[in-house]
Amino acid sequence: MGLDHKTVAQAKEFYETNAALLDETQQNNTNLMAFTRAVERTMRVKTVPRDRNTSWVYRDGDLMAIGYIGYGDFATSVNGDNKFVVCARGITNMKYAEYGDQHNMRMALKMDTAMKHAKRYLVPYSLSECASVFAQKVRTEVSSCRTAVKEKFSQTKKDVGINARSWGDEEKAARRLISELRSMIQAGHSFIDKTLDTDIRAMFDAMDGYKHFEEVVPMDFVHVHEQWGKQVVGRVTVKDVAAWQPQYENVCTFRAEEVPEEIQHGCAALSMCEDGHFVEGVGYRVNDHTFYLYK
After folding, report:
1. Which alpha helices (DSSP H) does the chain contain, by range?
2. pTM for the predicted model, two decimal places
3. What is the DSSP string of 103-119?
4. For 227-268, how does the pLDDT look when each residue is reduced to its tens digit (9 = 90+)?
5. Contact status, residue 38 vs residue 115, Cβ threshold 8 Å
6. What's the rounded Cα separation, in Å, for the pair 73 and 56?
7. How far is CA 210 from its chain centroid?
């Protein structure tokens, strides 16, 4: 499963829902309370309770919590001593398997040692890292749309009477026939059989939709936030969101008056949706200030 990346909003929402229980249990963990105060004071960050032994660490204005700290017994195989822990994405603890949080933990018996770990590993997410957190959700949505569009295109070919296979000599013959039909439509030809005419035009509409997914599917990850008291828009391009390991490029930050119109329009359209909602042809809404947009 791996490390659970959490937005600041998600961390706060969970705490607000369980505040009474978390506050009561954490008050009994005096070493955690002392560690929390030390991290907040020294690193100029904030914390919010995660469970009885741990607290998320975050900075105001950031999208993602930068990790969590804790005090307790976090050993998985045997009961051990209580320790101070720092859990963050930059930590790799090879004593533990990748599917557990311990794989991303540093543990220490002394708080001053744990503070060194906190200063080293509790660092803000880059824009590309933020994009990567949500890439899998977007890839799943895009893949579902790609499958549906491909199936629609295949069905429209069958309606016209063209073989829908996507390989071999039959596929080559189908391509030649479709090319000729396209030329006839573009030349203004209308078929005597009106049902066939309608089916052919529907096939080309479906074909144009499928071409959108044939190769790469580039998208922009956009995050609206404040920087030095002014609203700015961070943008990073995902070269192919459908790839198993997407690549990120063209990281930049726009002032409010510099934001391209296509980004403005995409954000405006998704602002009317709920968090986690995907709109084909537009993009995916993470929250009210973070979006994935088709290019």
Report:
1. 8-17, 19-27, 30-43, 111-121, 127-160, 168-186, 194-214, 261-270
2. 0.81
3. GGEEEESSHHHHHHHHH
4. 888 899 999 999 999 888 999 999 999 998 999 999 999 999
5. yes
6. 17
7. 24
